[in-house]
Amino acid sequence: MGASISASFSDPDGIDIMPGGADKGAGVRLLMACLGIAQHEVACFGDSFNDLAMFDVSPNSFAMSHANWVLLIERSIEKEVL
């Protein structure tokens, strides 16, 4: 068999279940490869646990001010500018 899944919470009432290795981080890495850009040229913003894989891709990753406190500890808080 060897099949795997990836699961993460997208909000308090929702969970994302995907094939193993299919997450926002994999999507950002694929996009970077297609565009020929480096990790330091990418900024990621998120507010939920399903964004943690994406945060691992770029050193320029920020949690939104309304994010779960775990994400706020994990990454800098994006300040509202509007």
Descriptive notes:
The chain is of the alpha/beta class. The chain has a single domain, classed as 3-Layer(aba) Sandwich (Rossmann fold), CATH 3.40.50. Helices cover 27% and strands 30% of the residues. It contains three helices and five strands; from the N terminus they run ββαβαβαβ. The strands form two sheets. It has a three-stranded parallel β-sheet. A two-stranded antiparallel sheet has the order 1-2.
Task: For the structure shown, list the relevant keywords.
single chain, 82 residues, alpha/beta, Rossmann fold, three-stranded parallel beta sheet, two-stranded antiparallel sheet, 3 helices, 27% helix
| Widest β-sheet, arrangement of strands | 3-4-5
Q: Assign an overall shape.
A: flat
Q: CATH first level: which class?
A: Alpha Beta
How many helices does DSSP assign?
3
Number of folding domains? Answer: 1
Q: How much β-strand is present in the residues?
A: 25-35%
Number of strands: 5
- Secondary-structure element pattern, one letter each: EEHEHEHE
Q: Name the CATH homologous superfamily.
A: HAD superfamily/HAD-like
How far apart the termini lie comes to 50 Å
Helix content: 25-40%
Output mean pLDDT: 83
CATH architecture: 3-Layer(aba) Sandwich
Radius of gyration: 14 Å
The structure class reads alpha/beta
